[in-house]
């Protein structure tokens, strides 16, 4: 069946999370006079944050535990003492500042311009509602997408089958006429495939994958498939 609906992940797929996150931390650390080596903090934070998101995705921790715990653990790792009040302030300000910076992956606008006239485009994201909508609006991406499906609205996170069923229902699409594009192997690619939805792996870190998996290193290469 011909593909009619394309579901994109947002963070790490279209929206360059790491680049924008780095700018957000630089901004809030200056505001609160946090005297750490920013690069040292970021080097530890990235891995810690990924682990917290994995726990959050698998329903092991709450949203609040993610927002606070990733900061606490990073400061402990670099042996920088901060009190709980400052942690709370940083966690709130980070979420506030993050969507103000909107660096996208190379080719994001170009591939969306290519796809938009011929397909219905949608977003499926595990990110927080209050941030994801701002990212889409501030970056100029909103106009391309018919539906924004968030894990908070669906009540579950990718790769849970329910969020894919919810997304298909909201888009009035079938699995056979849909395809998922994302960077996360477990949440996006396996999540989609196990629910009968084809997938394209945005493999910008160039991980080894099987020959049967559609994989691109750059967004513009999606043209080879769609």
From TrEMBL:
GO terms for molecular function: 5'-nucleotidase activity. It comes from the Bacteria. InterPro entries: HAD-like_sf, HAD-SF_hydro_IA, HAD-SF_hydro_IA_YjjG/PynA, HAD_sf, PGP-like_dom2, Pyrimidine_5'-ntase_YjjG. CDD domains: HAD_Neu5Ac-Pase_like. PANTHER family: PTHR47478, PYRIMIDINE 5'-NUCLEOTIDASE YJJG. This is Haloacid dehalogenase. It comes from Lutibacter profundi.
